[in-house]
Specification:
alpha/beta; homotetramer; 33% helix; globular
Chain lengths: 379, 379, 379, 379
């Protein structure tokens, strides 16, 4: 451990994701034995008082109120962008230009064009880069990947994913501003397509390969909401719901849906994959479990197996407690930090890189195009 | 009971559905107190030996090998068509012309044109008629209908349904012939669209009203199979999988999928409805349960309720055992028979009539058109 | 089928169990190919009007109001006792003396002494006999038995069973009389010990062998209830709850509990067996499923398998519908009737015989003794 | 936050519990706003190399190899005992004598006599004290407590708890030594009774009040194991399984069971409480959920509610992420640390204190006495 290199982190953002990322960098060395040790060097946010309070709570060494200053600091190795979508691109470009490693919250850009610029920037600068599609690192999801890579499913016929929430149903909920920028299209880029479907797509591309074509529809159920920044009732320009059919390059059919109007579901991200020999399903509300069906099992005792993914031979789990004791949401970020640091040490960059995440933005772009054209669109 | 009128049933078909219908007519008077009592007067099938064995097992009074003779018999009140799809239309037309009541297995026709002819025939003849979309009569599904009719869901945002099976994955499975006519497009009309999606659509129209438009895709995963009737390997012309997005007249979005390539699912028909105030979901693998979420519940104890639909105040259940004791698949047919007979007595015909079922065939037609055109299609 | 022998059934009782047994005898020949065909010859009940209505509904040929007359009839082969516990013994003795086959609802006697007399009577008369412990014939429970007999569990460490209901919690519920004789100790013999624990014990003896010793406690939560027959508030003399620890002859430990005061459970009979290599669990609220865990599965995909016991290679299921379509409570009786008739044809009597059921009464006797003595008691 | 007092922690033990406690003290200030801030001042363990590595990983300021030195240090405010059971008493006594606050892993003593001495010591010294019965702080369990305290259950009839594991089934597993002291009676005091049942009892006493009497049985399935410290095969003196019936002071009946021979269960701690009006159940394998049944719900929509305990109005949860995102096992320790620190600030000591935990040891003593005497024993 004595030989571990320090990695100085500069965090941009102190909201929900700022906390999740800070916790990840603060915990990872306690549980993983890595070549790099992250140091919480500085956090940056626009509100001086709030950023100072955040600094103290999370034991950052210092804070900034202008991200340009953070990027300019020579004592920072890594810029981690945990700010709203509309600033991802400019910060990433500046950070890459300054030779910093860059990590960025998802979605990478507000659209594929933005994401492409960012991808070119980090690749040109040859800086390590990664996007926080954290659900890849839920141990159950990583186990799904392992089972697929081992060829257990055989030919895949179906991929099905949903991300269901219900927190914007009330018409009285305003749009825009600090807590509600996800409802403001100019900041977020899109609604559930970029916020929720992007997660579904990232996992799908990882587990099942490229998507060729999509046929989509979107809907905005509540047409107008008070805008926090203008104080006026304004049209809602994001999509509240987004559904699409897909054709994967491997010949399988995709069915994707995201909405914030599914009463009873807080954050129900689920996927299911049906292969010739085996099927897999998972959901975020019980993220420590994986459902697995293997047709090769003897007939009379064949059934869906509920895997409690807490054993030491399950992905990531030997780092934690003992079998039967579950971990939670925040651990997906800790695992992602661990894999990023491991990639630095090994020279094999951990996925998803900016380029991987750009592919997701290309799919979400195609989804929005198809919703507008009412036709199938190529990715 | 002494005053019950006899209703003489002539059954066409002695396969899976012939058994289910015969059981329904044989059991219904034991458990329901009705104005009409069905009498198993005759069963008709092409194979003399088999139909005689069926007659004996099910205690029919007589049997026929030509459905025309059955239709011509004066001692028959009701013709029940439990034969493959390709004979639905001609039998129904003849039965209506002979002034018989007509019940018919689903889907009504191989396509909407056939179904329209059949609908016109029974309406012109003014004979009672019904189609066996039996899942409406699962007590849990009937309870869903009741909760919706009571207005508990509020504005509906989403309707989602799937019918997943896995029994045709093997490439060695032949097509056509007695047991496998569902894989022969000339007999079945279509694949999972008419066989499985039709169930999903019938329930959806009943619970959530009309579907305006659809965008669909279909796939045939196994392109050729040995044909049982020709003995040759022939192209498979049915759809193995069929998915579609829908827009309902009430403004909600639909997501439908059926397949016979979902490894691990035998007959998993599921639906979920998300309303402003409440949500409902159900699946056929545990058909005696309904999942219900009510947002009006107090926050700290708000959650999905697993309703074990076996109480005497649940639809149909006071006719059966005691709370906690479940019924099964075959009871959906018994309930449908009961409702049909009740409709005869009351003069208020039970749904779905031929006209109701014609609407389902119009949706499945639109689905197949959309899959071909790769565009949205109006129903 | 032409060669099937008729078996003339005389039913005693027209309550809940009278219906279940009548349905079983009425359905069994439709679904099972047997050497004997039951004929519903006569039903007997004390109320002339009610028994006549029951006769008509269930298509019995005739009815009686005095069971002695039924027993004396020469056209009756089998006396099936579906009447309250207090008349089991005298009817069974008379039936055996008359050379009739005897089937009897559980528990066999109100206590082991009664049950012993009955057992001696049928054995002395050498008449076929059986007790309706119907849950052995749930396909999932029969599958559990098969898996155990195949040695899949290895050495058994634990057996756990509960039967939880909640229908007598209200203090306003009276005791005694037609519908509530189960609360009247003089009729029922005991409370949940004989009514519910008896089911748990019968299954346990079948699946896990003899019970040597028990340590029990019982409780009567509501001490007084209005008695329907006297019209007065009288002490409640049955046990409302009964729990016991057990030691099986095979060295495993048992944990049993039954109650009618478990709010939220209508008829939740559950059991779980933990063996060295595998475990099994089941519950009556989803009776078509069996949970199975096999430690020999590969570690990373080891988990509880939820078996949907509806395949044609599962016990009894090839007689019913197609995979995925569940059956219900009443089918356990149909299966038991089938096995009884099969036993007649083969000469290998189906279990549980009166002697098997006597063993259950001996355990319930020991439970009640232990509750009184506050010590361990040998069975 | 500037006004927070430092609380200097001296940790004894660097095993599984040493990690869990260290993590709790290291995280609590990040997520909770408290009057005290714990400082990881020193960790103590017998192996110099290992304790130094642990110090570095967990960022303790210093380390010790002799707990007496740690207790003697003037810069330590709190001694936290995370070492095996056989040293709990002497460390606690010394720490109390030195005027330190004391926290101790459960069970408090190897038996009630030891626990009584410890309780007297901390009370005499008037030092804050607490025992790590961490499951009280799972948000779902804390919610159960809240619902009970609000009177929602009404009169309680039944309390049922199990703690099922399967990790010691193999006969080849040795006993004793660092990793396996829980199998060595001289270190652990007892087997599953003190290790697992103690958790069940602590929760039960908290949720349902005092236990008056117990009737128990225990078993040691594997009679001999190689001992890691002697290198010889020696008798196993712990209990592998322990079951007891209980009578609570409030008139309800208890049913408790713990075992390490329940194949398929890694750490399945479950409890269920049945009250007149409502019932509750919980299990550790899905610790973020609580099952709740309320009989006052309207009949047709009455069912068990699956509460996903992740909302901001659920206990502890406003400190974490957003609704739908679950936390895990380790958070129960963080919550307990928070409550302890809160108790220091408020002057209202958080439970369970040593005195509370002594009551649990009195019940486990009674369980072991009853298993030996084969009679009911008073607590």
């Amino acid at each position: 451990m004595a030989g571990r290199k320090k990695l100085n982190v500069g965090m941009v953002g102190y909201g929900f994701m700022g906390r999740a990322h800070s916790n990840a960098f603060g915990r990872v060395s306690r549980f993983f034995d890595l070549g790099y040790e992250p140091v919480l060097r500085a956090v940056c946010g626009r509100d001086k008082e709030k950023v100072e309070a955040f600094r103290e709570t999370w034991s950052y060494d210092s804070c900034e109120t202008d991200w340009r200053k953070l990027v300019a600091r020579s004592d920072i190795d890594l810029i981690d962008i945990a700010a709203p979508n509309d600033v991802h691109a400019e910060i990433a470009l500046a950070a890459a230009a300054a030779g910093k490693m860059v990590m960025c919250e998802k979605p990478l850009g507000r659209n594929a064009a933005e994401a492409a610029t960012m991808t070119e920037a980090v690749e040109r600068a040859k800086v390590p880069n990664m996007v926080w599609y954290n659900y890849r690192r839920a141990p159950a999801v990583a186990l799904a990947k392992q089972l697929i890579d081992e060829g257990r499913l055989g030919r895949v016929y179906h991929y099905r994913a949903k991300f269901l929430q219900d927190w914007t149903i009330s018409q009285d909920l305003p749009q825009g501003g600090a807590a509600l920028w996800r409802l403001d299209a100019s900041v977020a880029g899109s609604g559930v397509t970029g916020d929720l479907l992007a997660h579904c797509i990232d996992t799908a591309l990882w587990l099942n390969g490229a998507i060729d074509q999509v046929a989509a529809t979107t809907e905005t159920f509540v047409k107008e909401r008070m805008h926090n920044l203008t104080g006026k009732v304004e049209p809602v320009r994001i999509d509240d719901a987004s559904l699409f059919l897909a054709r994967f390059a491997n010949g399988s059919l995709g069915n994707f849906e995201a909405t914030r109007y599914a009463r009873g579901h807080k954050a129900l991200y689920t996927f299911e994959i049906n292969g010739e020999e085996a099927s897999i399903s998972w959901d975020l509300h019980d993220l420590h479990r994986l459902q697995y069906f293997d047709h090769r099992d003897e007939g009379i005792v064949r059934g869906w197996r509920s895997l409690h993914v807490t054993d030491s031979d399950h992905p990531y789990m030997k780092r934690w407690w003992v079998p039967g004791l579950q971990i939670g949401y925040e651990h997906t970020f800790i695992h992602q930090a661990a894999d990023f640091l491991d990639g630095l040490a090994s020279g094999k960059p951990a996925a998803p890189t900016f380029r991987d995440a750009l592919m997701t933005d290309r799919v979400t772009d195609a989804v929005l195009r198809s919703a507008a054209s009412e036709k199938w669109e190529r990715v």
